[in-house]
Write a structure and sequence with these properties.
heterodimer, A: 175 residues, mainly alpha, Four Helix Bundle (Hemerythrin (Met), subunit A), 0% strand, B: 327 residues, globular
Chain lengths: 175, 327
């Protein structure tokens, strides 16, 4: 086992363990912290595969902004013991049957893939920020996808503004 | 691996971390001393010559204090939070070049690393307030979360003008690109926005609403005492140092001397040090000079004024650079 492979396995195992903990933790804030650990581990894997830009964005956007907002909401609702109780009612053994079947199907596909691919190369090509930018906005096929994502985000923004505005107006009418 | 620029400078990690922590200790004393001077009072002048050893006295006091963990809170998260704050801020220093050959690493995502680490520091503040299980702490950390996530957006966008000019995220290359013209000239708007965002990110006065003493006792770190409190404060001061370093590197030519000065005998690291110390003093002066805004004023300043300005700045910079150098 080479050093590269060891360095790949450590964050990989951390990511899997942390993701498992996200599902099984009953306390919502703990689950979110495990989610952050999982995202950081995935970022390390990205970095080692030669995609530092994707790794940095993973931390800045997912760990640094999106999960912070999740945690913000959890804190605002101030979920206490009652939500932990409810969560433990949901996480009964019987609940695991459905997900288990789905995971089993995926595991079969994985096993098939592993059996047929020999020597997975973890040494990718170094893709810097410039290359990412050129792929997204250059003459490639991704420009359309970027524009579509932009439309979608704009629509989401306008929608959120509309919903928030109605709430504010309703509140203003009742002094 | 993959040609990341790894050199002997890994040796620098230990003295850099230790030096920064000792520096923070003296900075705390110096800040109180300078504030005293500006406000026409004495400040701490008892321990050692002019009070130089006040930092050490404070350190000993903090070490020997009762290290209290609130029994009504979440113990694990409470202990973890100050570590997250201090560690994530210290990690920023890894990508800061102090002189042409003096840095720990020079990666081509150095600027994004800075943004990533300063955004991870939010977790320390959030979890610290949340784990304290105290209403003032919770209010403080809710404020901190909203404030830091908001100002991260402008912080990230305000430095994009510099990135457009330099064409790279690497701090060493950004400084090299400023040899003839500091980016403060073409990117003045970017500098102003970055400075305001840096103040809000490190929640220093006047933007210290997460810990506003008059309203929230001490905000998110109300329940902290002893060395845990010291770690929280250390995170704040390291954030101030790191932001000053970033301002110097991005807008004031890093280790380059001013173009009109022909002082070859001054080493590059001295220029860097002078500029950083200057900006640290600006931070301290703002603390002495400006009152705290209201929280809704802070938020509307961010979203209604700074965000449009940053977007205009990016558009204009892109247009100008595109027109002068060809798209």
């Amino acid at each position: 086992m080479t050093l590269d492979l060891v360095l790949f396995w450590i964050p990989g195992l951390v990511a899997i363990g942390a993701t498992g903990a996200v599902i099984t933790r009953k306390n919502a804030s703990r689950a979110l912290i495990y989610l952050v650990v999982s995202l950081l581990a995935v970022a390390v894997i990205f970095f080692m595969l030669g995609a530092p830009f994707a790794a940095a964005l993973e931390v800045v956007v997912y760990a640094g902004a999106i999960v912070v907002l999740f945690l913000f909401v959890v804190m605002m609702l101030n979920l206490g013991r009652s939500s932990v109780m409810r969560e433990s009612r949901w996480l009964q053994p019987g609940m695991w049957i459905g997900p288990f079947i789905l995971v089993a199907i995926l595991a079969v596909v994985f096993a098939y893939a592993f059996a047929n691919i020999d020597g997975v190369d973890t040494k990718g090509e170094m893709v810097g920020p410039r290359a990412v930018g050129e792929a997204l906005f250059g003459e490639g096929a991704y420009l359309l996808a970027v524009e579509l994502a932009g439309f979608l985000l704009l629509a989401a923004l306008v929608g959120a503004y509309h919903l928030g505005r109605r709430y504010l107006e309703e509140r203003r009418e009742q002094p | 691996m993959f040609g990341y620029d790894i050199n002997w400078s890994y040796v620098l990690i230990l003295p850099l971390t230790g030096g920064t922590l000792v520096g923070v200790m003296f900075l705390v004393w110096w800040e109180r001393r300078v504030l005293g001077w500006w406000q026409d009072r004495l400040g701490p002048n008892r321990v050692g010559w002019f009070g130089v050893l006040q930092g050490i006295a404070d350190g000993i006091k903090l070490f020997t204090k009762d290290d209290w963990v609130p029994p009504f809170g979440d113990r694990t998260l409470f202990v973890l939070a100050p570590g997250i704050i201090a560690a994530s801020m210290l990690m920023i220093l890894a990508v800061i070049p102090f002189a042409p050959e003096l840095y720990v690493v020079d990666v081509n995502i150095a600027l994004l690393w800075f943004l990533a680490m300063s955004s991870l520091a939010v977790y320390g503040v959030l979890l610290g307030g949340f784990a304290s299980n105290n209403k003032y702490a919770l209010l403080g950390s809710l404020r901190a979360a909203a404030q830091m996530v908001t100002y991260e957006v402008f912080m990230g966008l305000s430095i994009m003008g510099v990135v457009i000019h330099a064409g790279t995220f690497s701090l060493v290359e950004i400084v090299d690109a400023q040899k003839d013209l500091w980016y403060i000239v073409p990117q003045f708007l970017g500098f102003v926005i970055f400075f305001i965002a840096g103040l809000a990110e490190s929640h220093r006065l006047p933007f210290d609403l997460p810990e506003a003493e008059h309203e929230l006792t001490a905000g998110f770190h109300t329940e902290y005492s002893g060395m845990k409190f010291a770690f929280v404060m250390c995170g704040e001061y390291v954030a101030m140092i790191a932001t000053s370093c970033l301002i110097t590197l991005l807008f004031f030519g890093g280790w380059h001397a001013p173009v009109f000065l022909d002082f070859d005998f001054v080493p590059p690291i001295a220029w860097f040090g002078i500029k950083v110390v200057f900006f640290i003093h600006v931070f301290i002066l703002l603390r002495a000079a400006i009152p705290r805004p209201r929280y809704d004023q802070l938020m509307s300043l961010g979203w209604k004024i700074l965000l449009p300005l940053t977007l205009v700045n990016i558009l204009a910079t892109g247009l100008i650079v595109g027109l002068t150098r060809g798209f």
